[in-house]
């Protein structure tokens, strides 16, 4: 019965992958509950509550502002026709490609005392010094809220728009026949019906906000993320960092619960037949131009201005930015991203294949376990990965000690750790993408192959892999891009000789010299466009 | 020797019994059809034969060789079974020739080529070797699927609703074609469908499935004429139940008068139900002399091409009766219902 033996081999592989990739999370949970740390008690007594309240305020602020921006945008593009609508529909997603620290830097530069906006105002009104007028300070918590919301609102926009599209127009039309104005019908029908999707999108935005390190660090707003970073680099206390991460896990858990809870309703509310493609309202005259102006302003502020400034930097400082440094860091980023893509795809293929063929109980658990890393903020993930690796390193060193051997910091002091961290963090992306292309392969192909005498391994090689080729490429690309963009984990884990494009850009942002890294910054933004293309395409296939 | 024997096979999924204590025998070169309503376990039975699901109890023999029981389980790839799927399951990335060659194991390239050519000829697709599945019509895809399933000379061919995606106009042509191919290759086959017309046209014998086991197995005529249970009777054709009493070996008393059977029953006197099909009922113009017969009233009339179907009401019971084209009644007309002498289907209560 070679059959049964092989099956258990797949099972063994899938479960090992699941356990290894989720190990950091378990280590983190254990450490944050068990370990004793003076540093943490000190933080707890002094600043930790400020960090927590800042984090919560930041999340609430970003959610509120995102809603104010994204809900009208979603409604306009889903239900109305107005000049430029077709273009706004995709263009309004572009800010997702923009790292928050870049937009934060650009606006700081523009709105600072020495920036063009204030200079112009002073010239116009003849003010002499800062005491002559009041101007808001962008490097504050509200400033951070605005910057992050400008980048994250597309999540809500996208999800809300899709939810509206899937609702039957008839409901809105019925409400209108019963005397509701379009505005009232928006609040009483569309909004209520889509609240599941809205909560899910806000949960996603909360998680991303909590994970943001660069903006708050640049604006010197202390949140839990910066606390993890500072604790590690300030005190080198892994336990204290783990405990702060534990607090973040709690917040994360709340967000995930909200998301799960909202999904239950979704099933009930959003199963309408068909998808609407026509517009419900055709805006005319003033209201049409107001709609265009609103979309245009959002696009201008969140994307056009920052990208224009970046381009301006890149052209003005081309000689300095187009440097050997840029190529060196780009190459290092490419290498790491390439290796991580290959590893995640390979693991993903086997784990998803196991899900497909498994006859044992809980076939989905290994994949779920392996995907847990994606929910962790980069800083938390970095700490979580360091925990088992330092343990492993010191036990290897203990074993080798009698022989006068020592691997030193071979694991935690090298790119190895970054690769591991990225694999843990981005496995979920690969898994999801592979899973969705696997389900498109009819199960009868497997049965056909098996009935013709092919083993499961042969079926994977001869039938699945050729059919998955395109899906695997997409999955690899998505992982690759995320690796190129990832910042906080890289900042925490990078060895001295390693610099990725993202850390390089952030370094220059911190040093107030983004001009010199403008080409790197632009590359990150451009690379970020690629997944948007895929999201947009899959949305279009939906509609 | 039988090609396939299933003895007491059971399969449970998540606590529900999908197949329960199922027995089935397929003779050499015989085409057996598993016929039943959807959800009765037909496809699962097929999968259990192929080894795509593992039966919990019972044993399966293919060509006399035990392939599955409580302690044995031969993997599907070692059972030498050909299978045809509802969606044909042609590999979209392989050409027609490569699809057909997929199951040809250890053969030289020229032998494979020869076998592929043979199969293409058999299914009349000789010019299509280098095409890809998406370039073929539904019927052509189906013929590739059968060629692929037969190419490696399986001991047994399984067909899972292979005709359900084919237009009704060409379906029966194709059925005849595939039957010809299977018979030409001299292979035993198990065919699953929920359509009795397909089953009648395609198979040698029928096995009616009901709630996970075989209700009755036999030739279509046998099952139609002498169903052993109500399920079988109902599945093979519409009809109505009349309460009846067996008076003698050949006479039954019903609300519509006495019905004569041309078969003798051993059970009399006893009571039960007669299952009467529309073609066994006759409508007769009311005539004064026949005062004893009960009168029925025509409720509605429906033209179905070769005949009329009347809905009539009698003694508060509504029934449908088929009447020949020439014979026409008006709505609300009083008629007399007669049941023609036939081999009755009597179910004792």
Description:
The complex is a heterodimer of chains A (543) and B (349). Chain A has 543 residues and is an all-alpha fold. Chain A folds into two domains: 1-34 and 320-543, MetI-like (MetI-like fold); 48-316, MetI-like fold (Orthogonal Bundle). Helices cover 77% and strands 1% of the residues of chain A. Chain A is built from 24 helices and two strands. Chain A has a two-stranded parallel ribbon. In chain A, helix 19 crosses helix 21 (456-485) and helix 20 (443-451) runs antiparallel to helix 21. The two termini of chain A are 48 Å apart. Chain B is an alpha+beta fold. Chain B has two domains: 4-235, Rossmann fold; 238-348, OB fold (Dihydrolipoamide Acetyltransferase, E2P) (Beta Barrel). Helix content of chain B is 23%, strand content 36%. Chain B has eight helices and 20 strands. Chain B has helices spanning 42-50, 96-101, 109-122, 138-151, 168-185, 196-202, 220-225, 230-236; strands spanning 4-13, 16-26, 31-35, 57-62, 65-68, 81-84, 156-160, 188-193, 205-210, 213-218, 240-246, 251-254, 257-260, 270-276, 281-285, 295-303, 307-314, 317-324, 334-339, 345-348. In chain B, a hairpin with a 2-residue loop joins strand 9 and strand 10 (213-218). In chain B, helix 3 (109-122) crosses helix 4 (138-151) and helix 4 packs parallel to helix 5. Chains A and B meet through helix 1, helix 20 and helix 21 of A and strand 6 of B.
């Amino acid at each position: 019965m070679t059959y049964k033996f092989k099956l258990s081999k797949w099972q063994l592989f899938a479960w090992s992958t699941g356990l290894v990739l989720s190990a950091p999370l378990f280590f983190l949970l254990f450490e944050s509950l068990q370990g004793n740390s003076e540093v943490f008690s000190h933080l707890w007594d002094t600043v930790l509550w400020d960090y927590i309240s800042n984090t919560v305020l930041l999340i609430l602020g970003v959610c509120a502002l995102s809603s104010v921006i994204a809900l009208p945008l979603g409604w306009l593009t889903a239900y109305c026709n107005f000049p430029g609508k077709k273009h706004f529909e995709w263009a309004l997603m572009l800010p997702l490609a923009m790292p928050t620290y870049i937009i934060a830097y650009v606006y700081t530069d523009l709105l600072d005392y020495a920036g063009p906006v204030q200079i112009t105002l002073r010239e116009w009104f003849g003010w002499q010094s800062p005491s002559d007028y009041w101007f808001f300070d962008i490097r504050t918590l509200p400033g951070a809220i605005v910057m992050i919301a400008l980048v994250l609102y597309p999540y809500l926009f996208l999800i809300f728009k899709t939810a509206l599209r899937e609702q039957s127009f008839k409901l809105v039309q019925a409400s209108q026949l019963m005397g509701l104005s379009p505005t009232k019908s928006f609040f009483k029908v569309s909004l209520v019906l889509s609240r599941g999707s809205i909560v899910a999108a806000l949960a996603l935005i909360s998680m991303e906000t909590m994970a943001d390190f660069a903006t708050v660090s640049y604006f010197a707003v202390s949140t839990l993320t910066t606390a993890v970073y500072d604790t590690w680099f300030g005190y080198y206390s892994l336990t204290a960092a783990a405990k702060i991460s534990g607090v973040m896990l709690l917040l994360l858990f709340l967000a995930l619960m909200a998301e799960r809870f909202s999904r239950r309703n979704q099933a009930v509310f959003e199963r309408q037949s068909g998808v609407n493609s026509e517009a419900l309202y055709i805006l005319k005259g003033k209201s049409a131009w107001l709609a265009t102006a609103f979309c245009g302003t959002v696009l201008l502020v969140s994307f056009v201005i920052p990208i224009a400034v970046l381009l301006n930097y890149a052209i003005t400082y081309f000689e300095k930015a187009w440097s050997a440094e840029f190529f060196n860091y780009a190459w290092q980023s490419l290498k790491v991203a390439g290796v991580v893509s290959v590893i995640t795809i390979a693991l993903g293929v086997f784990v998803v294949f196991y899900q497909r063929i498994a006859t044992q109980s809980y076939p989905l658990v290994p994949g779920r376990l392996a995907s847990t890393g994606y929910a962790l903020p980069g800083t938390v993930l970095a700490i979580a990965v360091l925990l088992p690796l330092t343990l492993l390193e010191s036990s290897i060193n203990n074993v080798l000690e009698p022989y006068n051997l020592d691997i030193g910091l071979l694991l935690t002091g090298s790119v190895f750790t970054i690769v591991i961290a990225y694999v843990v963090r981005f496995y979920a992306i690969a898994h999801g993408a592979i899973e969705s292309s696997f389900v498109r392969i009819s199960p009868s192909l497997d049965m056909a192959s098996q009935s013709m005498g092919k083993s499961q391994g042969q079926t994977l090689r001869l039938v699945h892999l050729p059919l998955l080729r395109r899906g695997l490429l997409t999955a690899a690309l998505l992982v690759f891009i995320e690796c190129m963009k990832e910042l906080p984990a890289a900042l925490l884990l990078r060895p001295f000789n390693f610099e990725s494009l993202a850390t390089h850009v952030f370094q220059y942002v911190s040093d107030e010299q983004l001009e010199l890294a403008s080409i790197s910054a632009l590359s990150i933004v451009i690379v970020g466009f690629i997944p948007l293309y895929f999201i947009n395409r899959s949305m279009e296939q939906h509609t | 020797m039988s090609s396939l024997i299933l003895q007491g096979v059971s399969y449970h999924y998540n606590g529900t019994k999908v197949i329960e204590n199922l027995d089935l025998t397929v003779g050499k070169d015989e085409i057996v059809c598993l016929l039943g309503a959807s959800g009765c376990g037909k496809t699962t039975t097929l999968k259990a034969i192929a080894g795509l699901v593992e039966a919990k109890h019972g044993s399966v023999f293919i060509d006399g060789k035990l392939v599955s029981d409580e302690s044995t389980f031969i993997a599907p790839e070692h059972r030498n079974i050909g299978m045809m799927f509802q969606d044909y399951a042609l590999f979209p990335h392989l050409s027609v020739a490569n699809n057909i060659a997929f199951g040809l194991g250890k053969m030289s390239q020229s032998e494979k080529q020869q076998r592929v050519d043979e199969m293409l000829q058999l299914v009349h697709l000789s010019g299509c070797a280098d095409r890809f599945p998406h370039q073929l019509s539904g019927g052509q895809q189906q013929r590739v699927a059968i060629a692929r399933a037969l190419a490696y000379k399986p001991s047994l061919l399984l067909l899972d609703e292979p005709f359900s995606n084919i237009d009704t106009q060409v379906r029966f042509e194709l059925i005849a074609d595939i039957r010809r191919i299977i018979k030409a290759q001299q292979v035993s086959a198990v065919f699953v469908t929920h359509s009795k017309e397909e089953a009648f046209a395609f198979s040698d014998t029928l096995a009616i499935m009901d709630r996970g086991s075989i209700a009755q197995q036999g030739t279509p005529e046998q099952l139609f004429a002498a169903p052993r249970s109500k399920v079988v009777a109902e599945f093979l054709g519409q009809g109505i139940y009349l309460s009846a009493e067996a008076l003698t070996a050949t006479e039954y008393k019903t609300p519509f008068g006495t019905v004569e059977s041309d078969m003798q029953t051993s059970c009399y006197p006893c009571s039960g139900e007669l299952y009467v099909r529309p073609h066994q009922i006759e409508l007769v113009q009311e005539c004064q002399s026949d005062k004893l017969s009960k009168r029925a009233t025509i409720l509605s009339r429906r033209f179905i091409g070769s005949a009329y179907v009347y809905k009539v009401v009698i003694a508060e019971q509504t029934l449908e009766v088929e009447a020949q084209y020439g014979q026409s009644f008006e709505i609300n007309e009083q008629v007399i219902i007669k049941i023609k002498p036939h081999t009755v289907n009597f179910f004792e209560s």
